[in-house]
Structure formats: structure tokens, C-alpha cells
Amino acid sequence: MRATPIKQSAINNHHLALPNTIISSNNINGNDYREDEYEEEDDNPPGESWHALDLSNMGLRHLSGSIMHYTHLTALYLSHNALSDLPATLFTHLPSIVFLDLSYNLFTHLPVQIGELQWLEELVLYNNKLVNLPWTIGRLARLKNLILGENPLMWPPVQIVQV
């Protein structure tokens, strides 16, 4: 298997900082990743010994579809970027996510496919522009923490989500 290039080589406590293949061509570095460059010669996901991916504070406006190759992820940090939408397939291709931090972005809505994250326990949506949440949030049976502060939520009513 060809090794995935690592932009920041910090791999501490099973936590990977930033593979170049994840960065969209509309990012701060201007990298132009072609998905056909991804070659996998066996069934093991690249870097399967790490389970968290931190793309926080990268100035990202879009995520590349190549993030879907990291199906083994259990934690994804996307906070403090300029993201306004996520690919709906993100939630179906990363089924093992337990922790998802989308705080400090520009989201006005979330795809209904977020309800596919069967293992999700913590969802951080703090400080976005969310007006409503998809009804599929109710499917997240393992969800223990839903952090919604600093959003202009209209549905569900704030009184319901504060309980």
C-alpha cells in the first residue's frame, strides 16, 4: 500500500493531524488533490492505527471527497474553519464516528444523513448559524452530548434541546 502523505507528522495518542489527501483544492494551501492518485493495494485503510483526524483551524471552506477513505475514524475535528456545508455522503461513509466537532463554522443546516451515525455520542455544533436541526437527529440513539450554544435555532425550540 502506498503511504498517505502527512502534512504534519504529529501522530500522538492515536491522533493524526492532517493528511494532504483530505484538504480540498479550495483550501488555504491551494493543494490540488486528484482523487485518482489514491491507490490502495490491500483492504486495510491507510493509517488504520490512528482513529482521530484533526482538521481544526485550517481555514477550510470545503472538504475533499477523499475523506471518505478513512472509514475507521471514530473522532473528526472540523472546528474553527469556514465550512458552510458538508457532503451528505460524509455521514454514510464514516459510520464509526463517535465524536464530531463542527463548532465555529458557518453551517446553516446539516444533511439529514447525519442520522446515519449510529455510534455518535457527542456532537459539537457550537457557534454556527444553524436555524434548525434535521429530524434525523432523533435517530442518534447513543448521543449523550449535543452542544448547540450560539446558534439562532428555531427548530427544535431551544427549550426542548436545553433539557
Structural class: mainly beta
Task: Report Rg.
Answer: 16 Å
Residues in β-strands, percent: 15-25%
Separation, N- and C-terminal Cα atoms:
48 Å
Q: Which residues form runs of ≥5 with pLDDT under 50?
A: 1-42
Strands, count: 7
The multimeric state of the shown protein is single chain
Protein topology:
Layout: E1 6-12, E2 15-19, E3 52-54, E4 75-77, H1 89-93, E5 99-101, E6 122-124, E7 145-147, H2 158-161
Parallel strand pairs: 2-3, 3-4, 4-5, 5-6, 6-7
Antiparallel strand pairs: 1-2
Brief digest:
By secondary structure, the protein is mainly β. The chain has helices spanning 89-93, 158-161, and strands at 6-12, 15-19, 52-54, 75-77, 99-101, 122-124, 145-147.
Key phrases:
single chain, 163 residues, mainly beta, Leucine-rich repeat, LRR (right-handed beta-alpha superhelix), seven-stranded mixed beta sheet, 2 helices, globular
Q: Could you characterize the architecture of this molecule?
A:
With 163 residues, the chain is mostly beta strands. The chain has one domain: Leucine-rich repeat, LRR (right-handed beta-alpha superhelix) (Alpha-Beta Horseshoe), CATH 3.80.10. Strands 1-2-3-4-5-6-7 form a 7-stranded mixed β-sheet, with no helix packed on it. It is globular, with a radius of gyration of 16 Å. The N terminus is likely disordered.
